[in-house]
């Protein structure tokens, strides 16, 4: 029993006693027979002169957590002690710890520093309902401690076990949502948790969800000791945490958070990231019989992607995916959802401060309102102080928007700036010579003025909406109405932000215009060629400027003098990749200029070289080479016409124009780099997917308007080496001969069987496991083909049509299963192997 002023407390559980008990009626603690556990502080010890130590709440590889009692504050707390296994120990009967010597001592000190820094860092988030609060941190007993709020409840791991080993999806979402909100705050402060797992998500008896135990010390010890696989929590740590110099970011915590969600709904810990390196066989929850919306499962499995780049890159993106995927359900009267976050934008439980004349307000189209912020700022006016949220600075508007979670508004303004400046740069780039930088600067200044007006209008909008709202509250409460004084003048926020925007963007314009000026007069990254006279003279005092001027004069020529069409620069910039200009000469009377680049010509990506000569005032094209071979001058005209034709096709930014240049043919073929070049130069967007075995790549072009399928070659063909990706399927057109010959190495004989199965012969599992994903797919579908099924897939249809034993008779709706015993056995075996190899 411990006496604290007027309180009598059990030294073990801090239950309040009447004063005469020898045995605690709550926990059964009896001081006379008490023996502390090995290596921990005994109950009754006092730290920092004010924290009474009670029972041990938990012990891990990096420290001990005790129940504590804040004597001055008269409240329970949790106290965490840094005591990593293998680096330090506490001898029986001692309070001081003993640190091992040598390298372990250095490692202990580094971990202690990070442990202490973690406490200071977490204390920044005190007051957040979903992050455990840290009250104090200090050194004592040759180690570090920090004091946290005491949480009464259980961690997520125990909660899941208590509820049958797994939770319903909707309950799991409600639990994970507050943690997403907490991580959004943490990440916005530039901090990572690094140790999210069910052990570190705590559910209190008051229906709060808390994020606890940041993993700073754990990570630094693992990095220094080269024992990351030991200190990390297998199944919850992303692959980058196994790497000494892994690339960490919000995506690292997102992996761990999704792993915790996966554990909640399936009851299983995901496979460790290290085990997914060679063959990723992580099963989606639906494959285990879990009822989960498809879109929710997709965002979850994205979060669990082995590669960091494939995961959502922010918790905001992850939460949006979760919220959109979850079906919206109307609550029954009197029903209270579990674990609702009071700070969540979607389900805020905060009551508005106004009780009368309450106006109907939505969240707003351009920004989300933040009541507390404006209440604090306007309270300054009540005290006679100057409100500080109209300081004339451009960045302040973005501070308002992003710090106050007004992401849509901030994104609109930032996007407006970026788009305007890109347009400005593009417009300036169409002008040659020294005028380009001045034009760019003027346009950027105009962008600054436009952005300033937009920022100012938005600033005024939410500034004065809250001014009127606070006035309304004052009127209801019978207080003095605030007047527009002390800097709160009509138009002041707008004027201030406009000035700041104009100044900041103007400075950006001046600096970038100088850079642009240098770039436009230097050798461009890509260009093109032409013939004819420029009729211009070149005079300069600098040899380097003379080189630039000569190149610029050539680029400014009309590509086709007869039609007065696009300039050399315009055609080359669009058509050629990796372009490089070189100029050699000593004065303006004699110069040799060379352009080199890659472009699509005669159904192939080829290297080009154009050579020009300037003699006096006359410039002429002297030589053209393709792939190192010089083209005869009488062929130049037709060559340039073909380039012009390609240029106009790609300038049209047409899907059809780009697809018309791609071939699905055994003799005329298109490789993946060539297709990507054509799409990119045509200004078309596309998405690429790769199957699990890496032998197939699919491009989805322009929002799904066209699809291209490439397969890896297994033999060298002409200019295409082994392992290149060849276009086999373009929309509904497929070339079976090219596929079988170059990508599968199979015979094109009309009698060939792919899986060698008959009504008597049964396949072996070991033999099938040596097959590729595509081979197994073809073999499996041959069983259907032998029963005359039609295939919607253009490749399957084309492949089986090459065989004399195949007749396409039955559509999907007409097809009936009619297997013999061997076929049924083979079909099931192929499916099993596909599942075992992770292809299904």
TrEMBL record:
Transmembrane segments: 387-403, 410-432, 438-466, 487-511
Key word Protein biosynthesis present: no
Residues of the Protein kinase domain: 51-323
Alphabetical keyword list: ATP-binding, Kinase, Membrane, Nucleotide-binding, Transferase, Transmembrane, Transmembrane helix
Pfam annotation, one family: YARHG
UniProt GO molecular function: ATP binding; protein serine/threonine kinase activity
Highest taxon in the source lineage: Bacteria
Binding, ATP: 80
Descriptive protein name: Kinase domain protein
């Amino acid at each position: 029993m411990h006496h604290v002023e007027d309180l009598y407390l059990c030294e073990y559980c801090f239950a309040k006693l009447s004063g005469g008990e020898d045995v605690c009626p709550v926990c059964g603690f009896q001081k006379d027979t008490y023996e502390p556990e090995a290596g921990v502080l005994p109950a009754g010890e006092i730290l920092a002169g004010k924290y009474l130590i009670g029972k041990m709440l938990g012990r891990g590889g990096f420290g001990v957590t005790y129940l504590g009692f804040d004597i001055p504050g008269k409240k329970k707390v949790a106290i965490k002690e840094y005591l990593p296994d293998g680096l330090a120990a506490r001898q029986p009967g001692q309070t001081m710890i003993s640190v091992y010597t040598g390298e372990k001592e250095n490692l202990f000190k580094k971990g202690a520093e990070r442990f202490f820094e973690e406490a200071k860092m977490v204390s920044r988030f005190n007051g957040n309902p979903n992050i455990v609060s840290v009250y104090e941190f200090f050194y004592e007993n040759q180690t570090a401690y920090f004091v946290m709020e005491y949480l009464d409840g259980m961690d997520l791991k125990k909660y899941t076990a208590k509820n049958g080993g797994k939770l319903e999806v909707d309950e799991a979402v409600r639990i994970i949502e507050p943690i997403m909100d907490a991580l959004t705050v943490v990440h916005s402060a530039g901090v990572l948790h690094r140790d999210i797992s069910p052990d570190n998500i705590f559910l209190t008896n008051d229906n709060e969800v808390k994020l606890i135990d940041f993993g700073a010390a754990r990570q630094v010890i693992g990095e220094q000791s080269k024992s990351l696989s030991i200190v990390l929590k297998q199944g919850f740590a992303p692959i980058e945490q196994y790497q000494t110099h892994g690339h960490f970011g919000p995506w690292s915590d997102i992996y761990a958070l999704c792993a915790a969600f996966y554990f909640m709904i399936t009851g299983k810990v995901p496979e460790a990231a290290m085990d997914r390196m060679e063959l990723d066989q992580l099963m989606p929850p639906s494959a285990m019989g879990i009822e989960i919306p498809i879109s929710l499962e997709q965002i979850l499995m994205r979060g669990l992607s082995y590669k960091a780049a494939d995961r959502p890159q922010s918790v905001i993106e992850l939460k949006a995916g979760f919220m959109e995927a979850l079906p919206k359900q109307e609550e029954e009267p009197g029903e209270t959802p579990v674990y609702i976050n009071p700070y969540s934008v979607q389900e805020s439980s905060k009551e508005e401060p106004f009780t009368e004349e309450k106006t109907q307000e939505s969240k707003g189209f351009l920004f989300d309102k933040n009541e507390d912020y404006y209440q604090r700022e306007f309270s300054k006016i009540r005290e006679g102080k100057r409100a500080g949220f109209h300081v004339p600075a451009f960045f302040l508007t973005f501070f308002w928007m992003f710090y106050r979670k007004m992401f849509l508004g901030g994104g609109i303004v930032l996007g407006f700036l970026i788009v305007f400046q890109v347009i400005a740069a593009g417009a300036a780039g169409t002008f040659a010579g020294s005028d380009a930088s001045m034009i760019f600067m003027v346009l950027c200044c105009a962008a600054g003025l436009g952005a300033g007006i937009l920022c100012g209008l938005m600033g005024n909008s939410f500034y004065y909406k809250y001014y009127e709202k606070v006035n309304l509250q004052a009127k209801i409460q019978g207080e003095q109405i605030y007047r527009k004084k002390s800097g709160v003048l009509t138009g002041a926020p707008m004027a201030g932000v406009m000035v700041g925007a104009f100044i900041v963007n103007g400075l950006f314009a001046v600096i970038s215009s100088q850079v642009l000026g240098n770039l436009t007069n230097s050798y461009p990254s890509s260009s093109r060629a032409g013939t004819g006279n420029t009729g211009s003279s070149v005079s300069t005092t600098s040899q380097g400027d003379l080189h630039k001027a000569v190149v610029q004069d050539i680029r400014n020529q009309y590509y086709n003098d007869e039609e007065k069409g696009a300039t050399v620069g315009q055609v080359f910039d669009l058509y050629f990749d990796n372009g490089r200009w070189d100029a050699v000469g000593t004065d303006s009377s004699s110069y040799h200029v060379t352009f080199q680049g890659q472009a699509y010509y005669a159904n192939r990506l080829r290297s080009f070289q154009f050579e020009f000569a300037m003699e006096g005032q006359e410039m002429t094209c002297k030589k053209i080479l393709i792939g190192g071979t010089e083209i005869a001058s009488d062929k130049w005209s037709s060559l340039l016409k073909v380039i012009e034709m390609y240029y106009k096709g790609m300038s049209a930014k047409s899907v059809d124009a780009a697809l018309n240049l791609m071939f699905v043919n055994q003799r005329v073929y298109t490789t993946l780099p060539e297709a990507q070049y054509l799409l990119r130069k045509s200004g078309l967007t596309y998405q690429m997917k790769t199957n699990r075995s890496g032998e197939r790549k699919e491009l989805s072009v322009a929002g799904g308007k066209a699809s291209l399928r490439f397969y890896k070659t297994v033999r060298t063909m002409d200019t295409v080496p082994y392992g290149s990706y060849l276009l086999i399927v373009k929309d509904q057109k497929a070339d079976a001969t090219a596929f079988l010959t170059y990508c599968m190495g199979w015979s094109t004989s009309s009698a060939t069987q792919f899986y060698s199965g008959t009504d008597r012969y049964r396949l072996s599992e070991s033999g099938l496991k040596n097959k590729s994903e595509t081979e197994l797919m073809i073999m499996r579908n041959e069983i259907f083909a032998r029963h005359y099924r039609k295939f919607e897939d253009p490749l399957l249809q084309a492949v089986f049509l090459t065989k004399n034993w195949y007749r396409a008779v039955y559509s999907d709706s007409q097809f009936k299963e009619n297997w013999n015993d061997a076929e049924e056995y083979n079909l099931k075996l192929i499916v099993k192997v596909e599942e075992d190899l992770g292809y299904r």
